[in-house]
Amino acid sequence: MVFCCSWDRGRQDYDDITVEAPDDKERRSSIGDPGEIEITSSKDAQGQVGESKVFQPSLGGVAFQEPSEDSRAEASLEAISPSQAPGQGFPPPATIPATSSACPPGSGAAGEVRRLSEPSLTAPAPSTCANPSADKLPEDILGILMEADKLRATCFPFDAEQLVFELVRRLEKEGKVDILDAVRQTQHYKDIVGQMLEINSTLETLLDDTGWTLQTDKAGMYVWTRPEKGTDLVTVRLAGLVEGPFKNFCSVGKEVDLIKTWMPGVKESKMLAQLDPFSFIGHYKWQQMLFSVREFLIEEKCHVNDDLGYLVCKRGPPEPRKDVTLPAEQKGVVRAGIHNWCSFSQPLGKKDGRSFTFAVAVCNVDLQVPLPTWVANKLSINFGYESFLQLRNNVKGTLEPGSAFAQSFTNPANREYYERVEELEKRCEGKRSAARRELLQTGWIKDTNERRRMFERGEGEVLVPLMPPNAATLPA
Questions:
Q1: Dihedral, CA of residue 250, residue 256, residue 260 and residue 264, to nearest 10
Q2: Which residue among 354, 366, 406, 427 has the highest number of C-beta atoms inside a 10 angstrom radius?
Q3: Statement: 24-122+199-319+330-451 belongs to CATH 3.80.10.10
Q4: 444, 461, 459, 475: which is closest to 206 by C-alpha?
């Protein structure tokens, strides 16, 4: 999980802070080498003060860009089929990624809250609404749809998609057009397609290379920036390798209760609700640099691809629920605006006996902190670089046998999550490819097409393939 945010110059809650603007020469070169700005000392996973100089909520996720509401409305769920669906690729994001804008490292126009279209993060449940089309289906076909719907609702969306994909191909081959049309009208089918569209929109961000400027390339860590449309602020993308077992990497973002033990400025963090083994609502408060308290209220939903061995996580404001009490906003506490926050992570196996994970993050989280643009941009780059260093340190801290993270691994409530995450690493261990070799050597895959092959979501392979470049909608 990578933390990014935008500093909102529109708020005036820093009367006791004075920032001198640079002269014109400095202003022209305001985006400099990371490391020029020292923020604060940080704590490792054991709560010890270390060398790192910046806070960072973790890197289990990355935020990605969503299609516009108009694009979503134009995409016809009923029209999607293996024979009609487009090939691999995706349209350039409308407001980037899972790590975005002027941040430490975030994004968003100064003095403005950007509202990106965000699919619901509500934990999936088996379809229970009226399903008249299902009454027209033969019993065996309805049984397949119900099984797929159960897989979707129990955190196996890719398996659910594959089951329906094979059914659709079979019906197409047999020429059973009427039955196929009835299948596409069922709520089971629409729910599966809807969830896969959400997953695709997250994956697509990883493939977007438009407009990025590489600011840092050190020790297998990368920080890019991209101007945010309509503002002087920038978006940040982070990527690189993290050493350590995959479950240890994932635990840094998952264990919300432990954030207060390692994140500077956080004295309160807790899990409000565990929605399913891979979804939760968390809450924590952060204060630093004389600013008023910022609070984070986050719902996280992770999608697991067991076959290819990766996690895709989406974060956003929680959906209201009758069985979950969310904290009310308090006077003197500013709630961070989470507009877009996603991540992709994949275990790469071992190199020289050491385990590594590849992670890329893009995010749009607005801390609503008033700062001049040149300062915000500089902080974005510095925070991005330091946050990745902090993540690496945190993962090392989880390896201590007596750490709180080690105890969480053996907690029965976490068993399903960590067992499945460990299985992903085992599946990836024996796999070898040119892309994996490049990742282990450099921490990044430069070629967009090579990155696209990591997902294996092309036409004729899955029910809902990734959109081709420059395509805004799926064909009818």
A1: 60
A2: 366
A3: no
A4: 444
